[in-house]
Amino acid sequence: MKANRSDPGSEDQRRFVMNDDISAWFDALAGDQRVLALQLRDLVRAHAPDLREELKWGQPCYSARSLVCYIQKARAHVSLGFSNGAALVDPEAQLHGSGGRMRHVKIALGTEPDHASLGRLIDAALALDAAP
């Protein structure tokens, strides 16, 4: 979708600017961290192409009715986090966290993410977000 550049307050224009900011966030990453973060971004987009992609709290966030998931960088890993992760079924026991709601999966730099299991978590997070 092309941004409506004639109306800087339009939703399309705001989304266009945020996506530019997000591209810069990914571009600023180096080496394995960038590769892994982009793989996670592609995975989220493949499972949930209609999610809004925004830069919030200094990291890429993906929302529908509410925040569904986010990508967070760290020195030795990249995390795919879920805002309602505590409510997700996690048979592979990948989710970490002890708070009331949020959980994340840590993927070590230099390793390949488990696309199938992460895809199932994304799908479950989407379904949870869509539930009444």
Please render the helix and strand layout as text.
Elements: H1 11-27, H2 31-47, E1 52-56, E2 59-63, E3 67-73, E4 77-82, E5 103-108, H3 115-130
Antiparallel strand pairs: 1-2, 2-3, 3-4, 4-5
Question: What assembly state would you assign to the polypeptide chains in this entry?
Answer: single chain
Spatial arrangement of strands, main beta sheet:
1-2-3-4-5
Q: How many helices does DSSP assign?
A: 3
| Shape verdict | globular
Q: Topology as H/E string?
A: HHEEEEEH
Number of domains: 1
Indicate the CATH topology: Aspartate Aminotransferase, domain 1
Structural class: alpha+beta
Q: Quick one: biggest sheet?
A: 5 strands, antiparallel
Query: What percent of residues are in strands?
Result: 15-25%
Q: Can you offer a commentary on this structure?
A:
38% of the residues lie in helices and 22% in strands. It has 132 residues and is α+β, with helices and mostly antiparallel strands. It has a single domain (30-130), classed as Alpha-Beta Complex (Aspartate Aminotransferase, domain 1). The longest helix has 17 residues, at 11-27. Mean pLDDT is 87; it is low at 1-18.
Summary tags:
five-stranded antiparallel β-sheet; 5 strands; 3 helices; disordered N terminus; 38% helix; Aspartate Aminotransferase, domain 1; alpha+beta; 132 residues
